[in-house]
Amino acid sequence: MSSLAAILALFVILSPFATSSTAAAGNDNSRSAYDIIQDFDLPMGLLPKGVTGYELDRSNGQFRAYLNGSCSFALEGSYQLKYKSTISGSISKNRLSGLTGVSVKVLFLWLNIVEVTRSGDNLEFSVGIASAAFPIDNFYECPQCGCGLDCVNGQVRKIKMNPLVSSI
Predict the structure, then answer these.
(1) Mind listing the pLDDT tens digit for each residue in 15-26?
(2) Can you tell me where the transmembrane regions are (predicted)?
(3) Structural domain boundaries of the chain?
(4) Tens of pLDDT, residues 94-109
């Protein structure tokens, strides 16, 4: 189960809500997707670099982020994350729920990350049947499609894990 937790953490680190100054549906065009998620007390590192735009309906929290195509990468050499060109969900204070468009490979299965919740200094990631918690400081830096967190040196930063893994 600890490998599931590590995979979930990697997925969240590489989530597809990335830098963007293009907004739609009445959003302030000078604000990025990074700014928006931070408004909800979530760290910017949940979003990868490369978001081309976003939409936010503040009346119901519906959020969409757009990438210029699909995105994937591996972390620590064995965890794989995959993002569709459109990521969507509902955002509220300390929470992304109903998330679609992001998946993580666990063993031989691709599982969808469906929810991210902040609790104090931890983020909990859920794939529906299981969840794992990770320290929030793993998510202060934004990953990049293709190479993750360290594209210059070709090495990936190790992710800190909490021993807590729970299944529902």
Answers:
(1) 433 333 334 444
(2) none
(3) 2-167
(4) 999 999 998 888 788 8
2-167 CATH fold: at5g01610, DUF538 DOMAIN (2.30.240)
Give CA–CA dist 80/64, Å, rounded: 22
* DSSP letters spanning 97-147: EEEEEEEEEETTEEEE--EEEEETTEEEEE-SSEEEEEEGGGGSS--BTTT
pTM of the model: 0.73
How far is Cα 30 from Cα 123, in angstroms, rounded to an integer?
Answer: 28
**Distance between CA atoms of 150 and 21, rounded to whole angstroms?**
24
Find, among 26, 22, 17, the residue nearest to 86 by Cα: 17
